[in-house]
Amino acid sequence: MNSRRQFLAASASALMTSHAMGANPKAYPYTEFEQRIARKDFRGMTKDVLPTPCMVVDIDLFEKNLRTMASYAKSAPIQLRPHVKVHKSVDIAKRQMALGAIGITAATIAESELMSNAGIKGVLWTKQPASANNLLRAIALTRKDPTFMFVVDDHAVASNVEEAAAAAKVKARVAVSVYAGLTRQGIANGKPALELTQKVASSPHISFEGFMAYSGYASHTKGWTERRKKTQEDLAGVNETVALCKQAGLPVKIVSGGSTGTYNMDHEFGLTELECGSYVFMDSLYKHVGGKTNDEIYTDFDSSLSIITTVDSKHHSGQVTTDYGNKAMAQTTDIVKGKDWLQVDKQGAEYGLLRWKDGGNEIKVGDRVEIYCSNLDMSTNSYDRYYIAKGNDIVDVWPIMGRSGAAQR
Ligand SMILES: Cc1ncc(COP(=O)(O)O)c(C=O)c1O
Description:
alpha/beta; Lyase, Ornithine Decarboxylase, Chain A, domain 1; TIM Barrel; 9-stranded mixed sheet; 8-stranded parallel sheet; binds pyridoxal-5'-phosphate; 2 domains
């Protein structure tokens, strides 16, 4: 039999035997595969049968990351309100809560609604409701879930919040967003922050909770000592603001901020809670910020998320085409798991590229390669589910929710 006929015969026999799965995991026809996912029947399902490109979470490494952060927070001591923008998964947020998180942090009103509607208390939305749409939604969520909290860094927005909260007869929980080295948001520390805080704290339909101060440049500063220096510098102004407010008799309940890169220094510089996100999966760029014990590679958290891609074509020396293309968020800074001679490159919407100088004979059409992505937020936003793997076995599937799209804005 020629190879095409062999392939067709194998596919036909796979279809016929698919309902008696277990023996040959490659024999899933796609319709049955989806039905099995829907009823969470993962018997005999392995990474080898997954449609690619797809996201896979190594459950052991993932749980280790969660435990490491949770136990650090308990011992530091500092509270943990993990950022969900990186995973957009209710399943993961619930696991973070079960390990002691006081709530979750969200980047969009849609993420906040998603998490709160799933029963998660203590959601902090880190953007102010500048549009009428977001203001209405923030107030509606406050009415439904009084533990929901959001930020303001602007007098006009604070006035709008007071007015909308008064009209809805609710008390909105608000933290003032203050500058912490990142120019994208946060009112200037000192007098401007004090004045906004006084306005917020004296608004009858607002409950002033404290401050949000995210020092995003510090997070990615290379080398632990340099990072600690930058964190101290970036949070110095925030601490002045906190002191001024306390002197003025304004109770500051929280100072929220921090990141995966700075989690083990933030409590020294005045933060009362951490908004770390990436630690659950770790991306390939973050791995290079260096840690306390290793200035080159950040080993505190493991890369628990990978993307599986299939080699689709091989005709030219030093390269193969994969299905990990631009729509799958391929980046040249991605890392190929266990094959450091392969370099990720871009080729087209649905076409990815792997290049090499030596060792290319080892890779052939149909091979599967695992990739660590460079930017978790962007990548997870492009996939609809995590396949949860224990070794090579699939043990669960968690949806990735609240992704970009009209309903999410
Ligand atoms: C407001 C806010 N807090 C915290 C973080 C920290 O996240 P990570 O732990 O992924 O660095 C981010 C990341 O972008 C953020 O935007």
